[in-house]
Sequence to fold (780 residues):
Amino acid sequence: KKKNQMPLANKEVVHLKTGWEKIQTGIQKLKNLLDNPSSKNNENNGENNGNVVEEINAQEFMIHYTTCYDMCTQKPPHDYSEALYKKYKEVFEEYIDSVCIPALKSRSGEFLLRELDLRWKNHDIMVRWMSRFFNYLDRYYIARHSYASLKDVGMTCFRDRVYKTLAGAMKDATLTLIDKEREGEQIDRALVKSIVSIFVQMGSDPNSEPLQAYELDFETPMLNVTAAHYKRQAAVWIEEESCPNYLVLAEGCLDMEKDRVQHYLHPSTEPKLMSKIEHEILAEHETKLLEKEGSGVSWLLNNDRKEDLARLFRLFTRIPNGVDPIAKAFKDHVTERGLELVEMATQSINEEGTVSGKQQALPSTVEQSFVQDIIKCHDKYIAFVSECFNDDVVFQRAFKDAFERFCNKSIGEVTIAELLANFCHSVLKKGGKEKLTDEVIEDHLEKIVKLLAYISDKDLFAEIAKQKLATRLLQDQSASEDLERSLLSKLKQCNGAQFTMKMESMVSDIQMAKENNPKYVEWLKEKSAKNNEPMPKTDMNVTILADGSWPTYTVMAMTLPEELTECVKKYEEFYENTYASRKLTWIFGAGSGVTLNIKFAQKPIEISCSTLQASILLLFREFDSLKVEEICEKMGVGIDDLREELPAIMFSKFKLLKHQPANPDEKKRTINALDVITFNDDFTDKARKIKIPKMSKVDRKKVNEIVDQDRDQTILAAVVRVMKSRKTMKHGDIQLEVVNSLKKLFLPEVKKVKKMIEKAIDQEYIERDPDDKMKFRYLA
Fold:
């Protein structure tokens, strides 16, 4: 073996001409295979790579590779690495100049793109096979000298000789195809994708940005052409189409363009392309689109076009601040609708309104329908916010602003806070006109609490609601204690524990009374048994009210009938024995549910009435008729008290008493001191038991006075609290801090805040800074 092996030093030298001729045979075969694809290859859509693999076998490949290897590993001066590197490049230049360029220059439009696609794919195959033949150069010579790789050399040849010559024609032909597709024609998307990939790969020059060629030579012109196209389209649509149709067309275009990017454009183009189209078809025409007569935002809202509104929102979220004009239009529409409801209710005061004394009031039917209309309005438009506008914070704010705008209007002298409190009273009291289930009542209460969030005078609502609650509890008119507690729970959750503290105490007092009254009865039984006395004939239930929680009632030292006086004395004795340290103050004006069995001429009737009404009726056991002033004297009450109690048993359908005015010229139903009151023995009714309704109107003027007094104290407390935490503050900062801390309950007037700051100084909670009269200091 050793004898037959040729030493390396004696190996035959491969000269440049000889070696290159040998390699060139393989290159020529490669060119022939690329230029003349077989029929089999034609079936494969012109892809030549498989054919080349079949025609250039492993033995041929090894001959070309080994020849290159030998020529590069010989000792100088026979190391032909540099010469082979140059010839590698010359092969591409010669092939491109002699074959590719002539073939491409003879074509234009789509034919140019198809030829270019073919030449680019052939070039790519040629680069890969040539790189294999000359692989040894890549591994050693090129790496050692930091030259461009064989693949980069091939790419550079194509870029310099083909791309730079035909880039403009490529761009124009490609844009023409895209434009045809936009007009509805069918195009070869695979071809466009291939051409776009050429633009992308032409930017792979190490000395430039990766997508520089794509962006400069194709993307920028394509974006400009697209903008111009949609500018023309939008100009036609805005004149000819309705708002819903315009939105459908716009959304369709955006979807098609997104699909176009996914099929043959570079992913980086999508945001730029969408931005251009959105600007032309949305941003440029937004105002005109929203205000379109007969199809704009207001029309869509009026006609419940939720799908179109959702599409409108979806589209305009794409552009910066695009939803702001929609939110403003939505706010204006809701405000307008709310003000229409207020105006309709105001007109009803003028047409059907009643005046009680000097107090203006809405008819109960109008009052109920108004609140229900407000609830329906709230339900309708909050559904738009959630279903159409995706609960976007801009629309939530617009919705809130709109409701705050009209919910703080007054209907004549009646505030919406009062109407909400009255509505709660109507659904929570017994014997309403509508028989509502607990579920419906719960739903109504929840919606009232939501509406209350838009009211600035929440403290006014709380005061009226407290008085109405007192009426229901004391007159046993509450439909359900659970529903009462449910309302308080909802109010507490939304407005804090302080808001419902007094009302919760009131409900607790009623519960305590239910527990105490059986104890009183038991005490009476024990006392009667102990003293061997009969049980009192008159039963009495007493409700103990916690001082400070309930509304302020007038305490009258009236003279009760003997039966009631005896009951009062018994209960005072029981209470003194049970709670020695407590003192009772009787509020007879709030008493109700006194049952009298009266024998009228036609039949006996059981009458349930208030304590004062019962006391008045019992006087007529001894007298047939009495003057009003005589009734006042015998009962120890004022004429104003009688004016509140007598109408229910004298002027209503239950005419238990007859009225004879002293002056016949006086207005009907006017009660004066000299008027004569006579028992109506002829009274009768179908029912054997009747309940006299107790007149319990809220005195608006009195409520406002109470609220104003409470506000003064609340503002003063806020001033002290703020100063205690900050120690020193400027006058303007105190005002701002106090207003911000109280605006959830009510909106304090600036002049009241100033007044309470002065009061805090007088009460020595704070003092002025001697050096700065506008600065205040907290006094510990």
About this structure: The chain is about 65% helix and 5% strand. Residues 71 and 162 are 31 Å apart (CA to CA). The mean pLDDT is 86. The two ends are 114 Å apart (CA to CA).
